[in-house]
């Protein structure tokens, strides 16, 4: 995994863990799964929480913006509860088939 991608995952995990008691971890999926940097692609991530609502999204976006600015990347983040994530069948299937899960500490968890 590229240094920049690793930094994105660590920074997101640290920020979410400190801000939200119900943060469960995140899935990386999409073009960045090959471990390389892609200047023309967003870093696609699903973040899991026990509660996902408008208030949480309003707190998430400044975190994303700060990391995007600091690391010069574009992050496409999908905040979900586990239940809502499973209901988004197309995305869920793609992520479950190819995605990589990182726990609350940003440590990769193999299936």
List keywords for this structure.
single chain, about 110 residues, alpha+beta, five-stranded mixed beta sheet, about 25% strand, globular
Summarize it:
With 111 residues, the protein is an alpha+beta fold. Helices cover 46% and strands 23% of the residues.
Topology:
Blueprint: H1 3-19, E1 23-29, E2 43-49, H2 54-71, E3 75-81, H3 82-87, H4 89-98, E4 100-102, E5 108-109
Parallel strand pairs: 2-3
Antiparallel strand pairs: 1-2, 1-4, 4-5
Helix pairs in contact: 1-2
The topology string of helices and strands comes to: HEEHEHHEE
| Helical run tally | 4
Strands, count: 5
Spans of at least 5 consecutive residues whose pLDDT stays below 50 are none
Strand content: 15-25%
* CA(first)-CA(last) distance: 17 Å
User: How would you classify the helix and strand content by structural class?
Assistant: alpha+beta
Main sheet: which strands, in order across?
3-2-1-4-5
Q: What's the main sheet like?
A: 5 strands, mixed
Output the radius of gyration: 13 Å
**Helix proportion:** 40-55%
Q: What overall geometry do the principal axes of the alpha carbons give? A: globular
Average pLDDT confidence is: 95
Verbal overview:
- The model has no long low-confidence stretch (mean pLDDT 95).
- By secondary structure, the chain is of the alpha+beta class.
- α1 packs antiparallel against α2.
- A 5-stranded mixed β-sheet has the order 3-2-1-4-5, with helices on both faces.
- The chain contains 4 helices and 5 strands.
- The protein is globular and about 30 Å long.
């Amino acid at each position: 995994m590229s240094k920049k991608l690793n930094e994105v995952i660590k920074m997101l995990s640290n920020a979410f863990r400190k801000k939200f008691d119900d943060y469960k971890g995140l899935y990386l999926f999409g073009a960045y799964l090959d471990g390389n940097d892609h200047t023309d692609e967003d870093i696609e991530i699903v973040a899991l929480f026990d509660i996902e609502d408008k208030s949480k999204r309003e707190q998430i976006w400044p975190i994303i913006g700060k990391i995007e600015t600091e690391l010069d990347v574009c992050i496409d983040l999908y905040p979900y509860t586990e239940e809502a994530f499973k209901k988004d069948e197309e995305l869920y299937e793609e992520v479950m088939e190819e995605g990589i899960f990182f726990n609350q500490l940003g440590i990769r968890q193999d299936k």
